[in-house]
């Protein structure tokens, strides 16, 4: 009897379990699958494409110097000579880049009073260009650079300078200025800006230019004698000495006086002697 009761309990439990499973399945059957739900949903609107920022323009040298500070005089020279536009073109159209040795405001203050005002516009432009090397030079390249270094002002000895790197400094000499690189202002793969605490003075502007040698006077050429010409032709005639008329007359009168006197003597001698 006890065994039958156990079997009946087990059967009842299985029936109850099957009934629960059936209800659970029936409850889920009306629900649509996730895929069907997604298909039935109205199409979502396509989001607008994200606008990428415009590519950065050419490097603006004056803005770099303004951000660094203490370069007001050099910035003014860049703008007044329009060399800022020239640099913009150089950086935009050349793969060589550029290197700028920018004098600080204190560097300009150490110049003799009135130095800048005494320069012409052309000389100011050359002064700014003298501080620009038309090649990108990283600080590591200072060790291997070849002197003299050509600048935007030119490549001759009067518009170039020498740069010498030591273990703890970089020296710049122009023939009139001797200074060192005082610090890095800016550097990327196209432009390098270094601070100098002295204005780099080019010899071409601030030293007297050598005087050109005086032309050698051409030797006077003798007149060439014509071929076949008689002797004396083609040669300079000897100067003719003109004798005064009174002197010539006196000479002639003296001769005739001698002749007349002699004749008179002969006549007298003949008369008295006969």
UniProtKB/TrEMBL annotation:
Residues 1-26 form the signal peptide. Belongs to the fasciclin-like AGP family. GO terms for cellular component: plasma membrane; side of membrane. One of its GO terms (biological process) is plant-type secondary cell wall biogenesis. Keywords: Cell membrane, Glycoprotein, GPI-anchor, Lipoprotein, Membrane, Proteoglycan, Signal. This is FAS1 domain-containing protein. Its main location: membrane. It is a lipid-anchor; GPI-anchor. Residues 58-200 form the FAS1 domain. It comes from Linum tenue. Pfam families: Fasciclin (PF02469). InterPro entries: FAS1_dom_sf, FAS1_domain, FLA_A. It is found in: Cell membrane. The keyword Membrane applies. The keyword Manganese does not apply. Residues 30-58, 214-236 are annotated as: Disordered. May be a cell surface adhesion protein.
